[in-house]
Amino acid sequence: MTIRHTLHATILSVALAAGAVTVSVAGASAAPSSPAPSVTRSSGVGNDALAGYASSALDLWATYSRTGSRPALDQFDSIRDAVAAEAATRLGLDVAAMQAAWSEADTEHQTALMAAFTQLGTPYKGYTATPGVGFDCSGLTSWAWAQAGVSLARQSRSQINNARAVTRETAQAGDLVFYPGHVMMWLGVGKAIVHSPYPGRDVEVTNGPSRKTLKVGDPTV
Q1: Predicted confidence band at 181 (pLDDT cuts at 50, 70, 90)?
Q2: pLDDT in tens, 146-159
Q3: Measured between alpha carbons, how far is 28 from 43 in angstroms, rounded to an integer?
Q4: What fold, for 3-218?
Q5: Is residue 18 very low, low, confident or very high in pLDDT (cuts 50, 70, 90)?
Q6: Residues 56-73: what's their mean pLDDT?
Q7: Which residue from 59, 85, 111, 198 has the highest number of Cβ atoms inside 10 Å of its Cβ?
Q8: Is 125 exposed, middle or buried, given 0-12, 13-18 or 19+ CB atoms closer than 10 A?
Q9: Distance in angstroms (rounded) separating the CA atoms of residues 112 and 148
Q10: Beta-strand (E) ranges in the chain?
Q11: Where exactly are the structural domains of the chain?
Q12: What is the spatial distance between Cα 28 and Cα 174, in angstroms, rounded to a whole number?
């Protein structure tokens, strides 16, 4: 079974098991024999199938935070792991290592990272931070971290200067990665990042640059 089929199966099983939990998925389709839930693309979500899955995960996290529902937390964990697996596969990285990096991050980092993933496929737009419409680099990081309750400055250098400096060995998935003029979010393995790169490109996951000037920072402290 491919990673994408695994994602579809995970979402369908979550939706069917959740009952009252509503799961909205971008780009998913059910096998004809499956009693599939109604599937629609959420507004304010990027034009990439993973964005819809990430949005579903955030909805489940909100349900858990509000109600303490253990099933909602378990379903969040399942989708998070599936999204991590697909991201790792796209980048040619170790799936288990990516899943472990995400699951070991604290809840603020997990929430911010999943929020950034909801915008995959959203176009780069300068001086913009509007979900589903456009982001510049610092717009994406500030918006994503705001979803975790962490306020960041709107300028990339200020974001990294205000963050606590960490090394790759001590960093968590979701921490900021910076080189002069550009800020990104680390995915927890190798050079993998999610970012809004430059005009003509969309929010994406990629293997980031190899630069001696790279800084890594935790914005929660």
Answers
A1: very high
A2: 999 999 999 999 99
A3: 15
A4: endopeptidase fold (from Nostoc punctiforme) (3.90.1720)
A5: very low
A6: 97
A7: 111
A8: middle
A9: 5
A10: 129-130, 134-135, 164-165, 176-179, 182-186, 192-195, 204-207, 215-218
A11: 3-218
A12: 26
The pair of three-digit structure tokens given for residue 121, joined into one six-digit string = 């496929």
Q: Any idea how long the chain is?
A: 221
Q: What does the alpha-carbon distance between residue 149 and residue 60 come to, in Å, rounded to a whole number? A: 17
Structure tokens at 149: 């309750």
The first and second tokens of residue 163, run together, are 């963050």
Where does residue 27 rank: exposed (0-12), middle (13-18), buried (19+ CB within 10 A)?
middle
Confidence of residue 221 (pLDDT cuts 50, 70, 90): confident
The single-letter code of the amino acid at 123 is: P
Structure tokens at 46: 């990027």
Residue type at 73? L
Query: What tens digit of pLDDT does each residue of 67-91 get?
Result: 999 999 999 999 999 999 999 999 9
Q: Which two tokens stand for residue 211?
A: 């630069």
Tokens representing 80 are 């998070």
